[in-house]
Amino acid sequence: MQTPEVDATALETLMAAAVAAPSIHNTQPWRFGMDPLTRAIEVRADRRRPLPLADPEQRALHMSVGAAVFNLRVAAAHLGWGPVVRLLPDPRDPDLLASVRLTGPEPGGQPSYRTLYEAVERRHTSRMPFTGRPVPERVTTEMIMAARAEHAHLDVPDIVRTRRLLRLTGAAETRNAVHPARAAEAHTWINTPGAEDPYGIPVTALGPLEAAGRMPMRDFTGLLPGMRLPALRFERHAQVALLWTVRDRPEDWLRAGQALERVLLVATVHGVRTSMLHQAMEWPDLRAAVGGPRHRCFPQLLIRFGYGPEGGRTPRASAQLTSGQDRVTVP
User: How many angstroms separate the CA atoms of 281 and 100, rounded?
Assistant: First the structure.
């Protein structure tokens, strides 16, 4: 099979998939470059939109970039390449977080994740109430295996542990709400109606808070209560999954991001909605408590999943792909 050409159409497809990845507060903390000699797409951290309180170590930034890397892999496989990923390829260049080299087709066929391509555009966070209908075990098993394929782990806890994880998330949300600087930081990422900023979260995508106080959804509008949607009742028995890694280094955060996106795309294929509960990960003591005293693991994210409405979409900035001295803007 002939190796596809890296033309403008292919680059547009690759970039559109990459920027469709989820990122904390929709900060989209990535930049892309192309090395024409090696046919490698370089994925760099864009540190111009920091979250010094919510993400002081830039762990969530690395996860966001990792999710973009996975989408690049999916799009590359869809176009006929066998993408080869290197994480942190140059110790002298700390902003270069990954490279994705576009090689010929893999022997024996394309990677197994090629079927996820159609879900890349459809996947987005839903902060709306779910129906409470349980997701079948076969689907949750596929989500667990998706994380494992990316060298991460996904636990789907029982009701007792689920309630504990939600209590810890709720404790973090309470801390954030009474911490003026943290509340202000979150508020800066809200886009009011009519705003053209491609970063941040539109008010229409925030979703309501939970009327009974059981579901600790992040309150971005605490400083401006007039912007809140009416509170609604959420599912009584939430389904959550804890994404974790054995180690807690930058490369592990990048792997966790790839695992996260693979899990989310698998869920999307099966019509399962997802939202991210990151609050407890922003407080070291609560993050440690999420891992539990008997578990040697590093929690990276709590995922709420189930069936329900799609929720609002968030905007995306045009991806700028650099190649030598030339800059090409790909919508």
Answer: 28
- Both 302 and 322 in one domain: the answer is no
Residue of 219, 300, 223 whose CA lies nearest to 259: 300
In terms of domains, do 174 and 272 share one? yes
> Considering only CA atoms, which of 55, 67, 10 is closest in space to residue 34?
10
Question: Do residue 59 and residue 89 come from a single domain?
Answer: yes
Tokens describing residue 225? 């209560």
3-state helix, strand, coil in the chain (%, to 5): 40, 20, 40
Domain count, the chain: 2
Looking at beta carbons, which pairs linking 326-331 to residues 24 or more positions away fall under 8 Å?
Answer: 328/8, 328/11, 330/8, 330/11, 330/12, 330/15, 330/16, 331/12, 331/16
- Supply the pLDDT for residue 325: 38
Instruction: Render pLDDT for 7-31 as a digit per residue (tens, 0 to 9).
Output: 999 999 999 999 999 999 999 999 9
Residue-wise pLDDT tens digits, 183-237: 999 999 998 777 778 999 998 888 888 888 889 999 988 756 566 678 899 999 9
Judgement on whether residues 83 and 162 belong to the same structural domain of the protein: no
- Give the chain's radius of gyration (CA, Å): 19
Compute the distance between CA of residue 255 and CA of residue 114 in angstroms, rounded to an integer. Answer: 18
Calculate mean pLDDT across residues 150-169: 97
* 281 in the same domain as 154: yes
Domain containing 292 equals 137-306
Question: How many Å apart are CA 327 and CA 101, to the nearest integer?
Answer: 19
